[in-house]
Amino acid sequence: MTYLLGIDVGTGGTRALILDESGTVIASATSDHAPFASPHTGWAEQDPDDWWRACRQAVPRALEQAGLQASDIVAIGLSGQMHGATLLDTAGAVVRPALIWCDQRTQAECDQLTERIGAARLIELTSNPALTGFTLPKLLWVRRTEPDAWARVRHVLLPKDYIRFRLTGRMATDVADASGTLLFDVARRTWSSEMLAATSLPASLLPEAFEGPQVTGSLTAEGAAAVGLLAGTPVVAGGGDQAAGAVGMGIVRAGAVCATIGTSGVVFAATDRPALDPSGRVHTFCHAVPGRWHVMGVTQAAGLSLRWFRDRFGSGGSDGRDPYERLTDEALAVPPGADGVLWAPYLMGERTPHLDASARAALIGLAASHTRGHVIRAILEGVAFSLQDSFTILREMQVPVEAIRLGGGGARSALWRQVQADVYGQSVQTVAAEEGAACGAGLLAGVGVGLWPDVDTACDRVVRVTSEVTPGEGAAVLARQYLAYRALYPALKQVQALLMPQASSLQPPASSLQPQASSLRPEP
Ligand SMILES: Nc1ncnc2c1ncn2[C@@H]1O[C@H](COP(=O)(O)OP(=O)(O)O)[C@@H](O)[C@H]1O
Ligand SMILES: O=C(CO)[C@@H](O)[C@H](O)COP(=O)(O)O
């Protein structure tokens, strides 16, 4: 028997998952990351060496759980949180903490990029608008505000690719993750020399981009020793967590869509060609399946909304049960619609559909009779409403939505699954492998070493639907509540303007996109 290892560098932790050659998950271990640092409102940073520490813990734990030897693992696939700017010096050492996907400090850089390159041209070049979460604006922010740090930067890697570098010594990425940098020509599946030229960045900063199942290198002696595996074990490109997660859930052909509630929330549809929203409210990225693309809408704080409630207000006991289960049990006693309580989940600004880094969350409709359970139920519903905004855009774009599969930690909750079916007005399915992204990375590894001929075949053979929930009695109430939700953001925007007249106070004013005297020059 041969085995595959998928590693997913999430926001909350790094997961190592082992699949056998039939694609069955036989072990899964997670090591948590330190919570991301938010030294100012809207900032989000993590230490890349904490991801590596978590990887070194999770992989040996998964091997031990599976009762396997190092030699049993024939290939490794990587997946991870997207967009994060991991900045390395000439020796490959980390220059400063990584600015991660939900960091919102770069509105000035985005405005300047849009002004200089033009909104339409940006979409022509990269298939996407300039958004604060993407990698390029983060690079420009560091170049502008931290010239000393920037002067040392020689390489930019995405989070999972930093782990690849530690494992294999190779700097490489995959086309799905590269799509979220705003430096990638998504339609042509290659780095955009025009974007590099427009921002005076050298191509030498960027790693080579591979298709998801391609082998990018193999474990070095040092990398192998760190995780308890054999030197020479091949490592495939894998995918950004949403594309890899879609592979793990079998979302590989047009018509198949998944809704994932991790820290963020994502509605992801596979497409045969790059499908564009002219207003850029959803992202158009390469899929981890060669020759395919996807569109996705992103809620910044989906699972994060419930986590925030848990961390700030407690999970209501210490009976040894999963805290999220205790929380969702509290919400079970409350009827659909939460007796008029409504949550807008904009804790970290919002991407789809508002593209507004300065948006803020709100809880409205409270009365003295309401309980914690009402607030929790409102959070579950508000997150689903936010994902429904993405489905609404997909329908406007005529992207087919034939089957919806649920993923991420949020799919563990029966209540959240029912709320999603009710809000989307369509049945939702779950699949056997809960840990979609790590599983997808493992499947891509299997394709890379020839265990399956291609990704479609791997998914057809391995992915198994385990449950289906149909819209229930709550659907009609939630359809009405969704109308109230749609009215909430414009109203909040007006109030927000009074509360925070200078939304741009997230960062000092931008001077120029051009590098300063002490900043990066191409390597000789
Ligand atoms: N049993 C559960 N019930 C409801 N929500 C859950 C449960 N377990 C996890 N979650 C939600 O899932 C989120 C974590 O999902 P996960 O996919 O592990 O995130 P990430 O990949 O971003 O680290 C949590 O923040 C929480 O909101
Ligand atoms: O920014 C995106 C996708 O564009 C996020 O999906 C990140 O990739 C983080 O994912 P999770 O930690 O929520 O899995």
From TrEMBL:
One Pfam family here: FGGY_N
UniProt cross-references to SUPFAM superfamilies, sorted A to Z: Actin-like ATPase domain (SSF53067)
Organism of derivation: Luteitalea pratensis
Transmembrane segments: none
Residue stretches making up the Carbohydrate kinase FGGY C-terminal domain: 259-447
Identification of the protein by name: Xylulose kinase
Sorted UniProt keywords: ATP-binding, Carbohydrate metabolism, Kinase, Nucleotide-binding, Transferase, Xylose metabolism
Catalytic reactions of this protein: D-xylulose + ATP = D-xylulose 5-phosphate + ADP + H(+)
